[in-house]
Amino acid sequence: MSIQKLTDILKESHNIVFFGGAGVSTASGIPDFRSANGLWNQKYKRNLSPEELVSASFFRNDPEDFFEFYRDKLVYPKAKPNACHLALAKLEQMGRLKAVVTQNIDGLHQKAGSKTVYELHGSVLRNYCTRCHAFYGVDVILESKGVPHCPECGGIIKPDVVLYEEMLDETVIRKAVQAISRADTLIIGGTSLVVYPAAGFVRYFRGRHLVVINMSATQADEEADLVIHDDIARVMGKAVAALEEAEA
Ligand code: ZN
Q1: Is-catalytic flag, 85?
Q2: How far does residue 133's CA lie from ligand 1's centre (Å)?
């Protein structure tokens, strides 16, 4: 059975890195934002692609509509970590996992207890004033109407999220690549690996076990020594529970 095989791989791994995408958070009720633009366009009588809706130029030129979409489709304050987030936090606690690299911006890995998390696209939980650079939590976005302004200086508050047309944070990339290049096991989960720069990151892996867990096929399936096309929350939850049981 493939979950048994995953448990066996976890058992002999001491430097696991997990690379995850939107699929990791679907069991927490957070849909991939790419699927959210259709309804939004209908509601606001626009015709924008998902990429345009979260682009730097849209934020700059049309901040009212940007925040309308952003509040509606990108921020999920009530979302809770699912079995995958919890399993990864447990693996870190056991000393087996060294880092989570994520494309998600929901902060659920930290909520689950993970300590080393490289957020390639930032986090909706952090926001800053574009004028005085004061930092704010997510409440300032949710509790304001229209464009959120800094209570201190009146500047526009921007989510600490990497928008399209913006560069990823170099320090975060460097640390993520370093972690991947040192890993003995790389688990790629909940991503089809088509989003830049995900596919490129995998090339840095030189360890023993490449595992792919995703509902549909990915570009890495061919190279992987274990591929599981199934719900990642279920798979990771079961595999880590079995590992804990074996070690108890
Ligand atoms: Zn300010």
Answers
A1: no
A2: 6
Distance 126 CA to ligand 1 centre (A): 14
Q: Read off the amino acid at residue 155.
A: G
Which pLDDT belongs to residue 33? Answer: 74
Query: Which residue carries 């509040």 as its tokens?
Result: 71
**How far, in Å, from the CA of 124 to the mean position of ligand 1?**
18
In whole angstroms, how far apart are CA 192 and each of 21, 32, 67, 73? 8, 12, 27, 21
**Ion ligand 1 residue ranges (Cβ < 5 Å):** 129, 131-132, 134, 150, 152-153, 155
Active-site choice (85, 109, 121, 209):
121
Per-residue pLDDT at 162: 95
Q: How far is the CA of 147 from the centre of ligand 1 (A)?
A: 13
The residue written with tokens 């959210």 in the block is 36
CA of 142 to the centre of ligand 1 (A): 17
- CA 122 to CA 107: how far, in whole Å? 9
Question: Is the pLDDT reported for residue 196 higher than 70?
Answer: no
- C-alpha–C-alpha distance, residues 181 and 134, integer Å: 35
As a whole number, mean pLDDT of residues 196-205 equals: 82
Q: State the average pLDDT for the chain.
A: 93
